[in-house]
Design brief:
Helix content: over 70%
Radius of gyration: 18 Å
Oligomer: single chain
Order of helices and strands: HHHHHHHHHHH
Shape: globular
Number of strands: 0
Largest sheet: none
Strand content: under 5%
Structural class: mainly alpha
Amino acid sequence: MVEGFSTGMMGDIEKSIMKKAELFDSSIGRYMMRAMLACFYLTLGTGIAVGLADFTEQLAPGWGKIGYSFMFTWSLVMIIYLNAELGTSNMMYMTTAVHRKILPWKKALAILGTCILFNAVGAVVISWVLSYTGVFHQVSTDHFLVTAVAGKLAKAPLQIFVEGIFANMIVNIAFYVTMRMKDDAGKVLAIVFLIFIFAFLGFEHVIANFSSFSLAFFASGGHVPGMTVGAVVTNIVLATLGNYVGGGLVMGLNYSWLNNGKTSYVD
């Protein structure tokens, strides 16, 4: 464990790592619940996003994606401001923790694995409950949600992996940017504009896919074109690997290394 903290953004990251590790050690049940809450908020954000997108498509074909991308961004606003534990941001935190010798790799892996697992549990639970609401009770196969998920499942493996890299780079850029800002309005605007990028471009984010895949399955009664066990597992595995490269290595390890030098050029 480190005895002191760095200054600036890296210091904030180190303090967050210690806070996560302390909660994990003292009350793993509370940590699991914070991980589940991340996907409660993410699934609610996905729900309003696809609902607005489907409605917009009926009024103005082609504009649904814009509505979806804008409303989806509020998922991360809720996650950040309500201190939920998101697996893809923890890829950055835990890689930084190992590189800076704050946590041993086994401990960091245990925290990250637990977070991702209970993100998935939270997504399944809230999606199942949400499927009983009027808006998502037996949606048709041409609903924006179903067609969007079918499109994700039809992607080539390399495309999923590469899009996973970019998706989690953007998510962690949003975390970094909000650490540097003091004004809440500015933080929210930064999150909205940054997450809009990955949502509009349709990049692959494994935790978001937990929510969209689960909601599409329950809301359609399992009638999602191309949704097979093999297709879902392929997407989840490759998106996870891509997300780790983007968030864990490109953003986490890279910025930890950049801020390890003996110069005044630090973040």
